[in-house]
């Protein structure tokens, strides 16, 4: 075989078809062309390579020794190419293994579960491990593969996308207002009973706004905004919550417009070394698009029901 002859993959398909079928006519049928085309392609291929691939026998086209050798390699190539095509079109992109996600309890108590359910349906081989601690899991030490959380900006060495602004507002239970004979318009937010936040949340934008705004001490303190929501629902006091949580909670009404000072941004983050792994990129792509559909709710523009 002369090494300077480039093998034409298209020609090779014709050779493979003839070898499989042992006849020009059958190969032509399989390829959907007429048999003179097959004859021409095989002949030109043999000429280019300077090798006879077939003995033309009365019983059909039989491979020569050189043809057998070429065919063994060609079959491997054909398999590799079809496998590659299949994987690129994603039919066989069976994503498997575990994927560790760190997110907030408020997202898991609102919009995230249905998104994870959709992802699981699409990729049943992926085991999602969800952690909802308030501490920002250390992605660089691989405590988690993906973080979905409100932050002020994207931390270093993490790659991510900003999904939306996250609006926060004040919420109360109708029962709280009834007992005090107040309406959403007549209450003085700074002086009401409040659900406070404990040390775990002290550095959050919510806690900072509360420290700057509220006059009286909290009537109940808690370490989670989901807990704060439950306390507010029971009528214990007012709570500042992300609108995606407050607006989707039956039994709470929003008091006033979202508070600008509490606004955060929702980030979808992963470590730069990881973003190329199939399950991480499939997950961030899917979840990024799904979360973006909730932008009105996240940004506080979906009216309270």
Automatic annotation (TrEMBL):
- Give yes or no: UniProt keyword Protein biosynthesis: no
Coiled-coil zones: none
Q: Per the record's keyword annotation, is Transcription included, yes or no?
A: yes
Q: PROSITE patterns, from UniProt?
A: HTH_LYSR
Name the UniProt key words of this record, in alphabetical order. Answer: DNA-binding, Plasmid, Transcription, Transcription regulation
Q: Which Pfam families match?
A: HTH_1 (PF00126), LysR_substrate (PF03466)
Q: Which family does it belong to?
A: Belongs to the LysR transcriptional regulatory family.
This protein's name: LysR family transcriptional regulator
